[in-house]
Batch of 2 targets.
Target 1
Amino acid sequence: MWTADTIIHNGTAMPFAEARLHPLSVGVAYGVAVFEGMRAYRNPADGSFSVFRLDEHLARLQQGMKVMRFDAPPSTGTLRDAVLEVVRLNAPDEDAYIRLQAQIETIGTLASTGPVGWVVAALPRERSAKFASGLAATVSSWTRISDNAMPPRIKASANYHASRLANLQARADGYDSALLLTQRGKLSEAASACIFLLRDGVLVTPGKSSDILESVTRDTVLVLAAEAGIPVEQRDVDRTELYVAEEVFLCGTGQELVAVTSVDRLPVGNGKPGAVTQRLQAAYEAVVRGTTNAHPEWRARV
């Protein structure tokens, strides 16, 4: 597997191992940072790379910096150029995972809003080992953060502490992934991924008011499902719907699309990835790699 050797920090390319922040900077001390995870996919026909839905990720990052009240954030154009450049500089020979992050970089207080620095890195990241067979998930005893506490639609680094606790507990109990409920007891999402269920031939996903991240991958699935003629509902989802669903899958930049084949040790459907999940996996794979002519606007060529 290729290795990352170059990172861009505040517009300057430098050796990956030499990137530094002071340990008492606000970004480190209080987790005052927002980030995006993206992927650069390799087209198998010509070896070219494209960053998937780069513009949508950059728009969400700008929204996050606004809500976090960052002073003088970097421009979208600056960040867009840097994302493409960091892929070029690292010259991967397989897919790359891209981390773009903005943070408060100097020592300050919890109320500090600047100065804002940023970093972008391209890293190797293998696909989930359970991509083909599916995940064993559990409904976590930890509750999803709420919009009035730590807005989950903002991709803030600190928001992921709740997901970390849920994932650690799930793995200690022998599961692959944790599913979180809202404070109202409705299904929200998995720890670091959105969730879809198939019920009576209808694809169902928790709505935006269910304390979810407004996921770019979730939006992609909604579009692909509509184009495939699969009916979709965005609504409140009860916990027990997980137990009676015909199929369940997670989606996100890191997870991509991966089936959930059991929840709380109850099999989902026949306990194997379902036909609709596999159909959407194939459609997603084609559109991110550019082996289809569909949605060229989603692929930013490196």
Target 2
Amino acid sequence: MNKVRGSAAEAVADIPDGASLAVGGFGLSGVPAALIDALYARGTTGLRVVSNNCGVDGRGLGVLLAAGRIARVTGSYVGENKEFARQYLSGELEVELTPQGTLAERLRAGGAGIPAFYTPAGVGTQVARGGLPWRYAPDGTVAVPSPPKDTREFGGRPYLLEHGITTDFALVRAWRGDRHGNLVFRRAAANFNPLAAMAAGVTIAEVEELVEPGELAPEDVHLPGIYVQRVVTLSAAQAADKPVERLTLAASSARGTVRS
């Protein structure tokens, strides 16, 4: 039951080229940066990534992307990464864009053993009709279009069929965790990390604080250890490394102070 590994490098050592990965994070919040860096150092390539976004230039999954290690991305938002846009438009990267709520439910469904479900999101759009460019050819034409989705009516309202997502591995980051793999997430880090962890065959979690079994109250646990196979403890410096994606400062007219 002791799932703790000695290092991030040890934890990701068996992730092969071409593996599918569910990766937690929301913007730069809750991104498993240490595990991503270890995978980069190992040289793993051809990865098929499922994540809300693909990091930013030089941070998070953007590190693997810039090195040409990612072959395909399923995500909902990619607007903060110029290299992502370049690779996609040049035909180097295959991209399946999915509405954010649909992506969350596809991961949850995969983790719950639900193969598919119907949702109203995307009805009447090209998401339903198909033909969205998953991959471009070098000449700018569409090399791989999205397929049309099955549509059915329930209660007189149309719905689209979406498939649950499962992956070979998941990389997630938690605020606290114990040696059994029970995890607690903080704030925005709880948006996609638990869902990514549920969807994978092997889930690897980096934790900011490792505690002993029994120290986490059962009602405080966001993800039970049954979903987690490996735990890596972050150093103090790694745990404190929490960049802000967009820092906005506003001056207070009343007191002349600055707040973020």
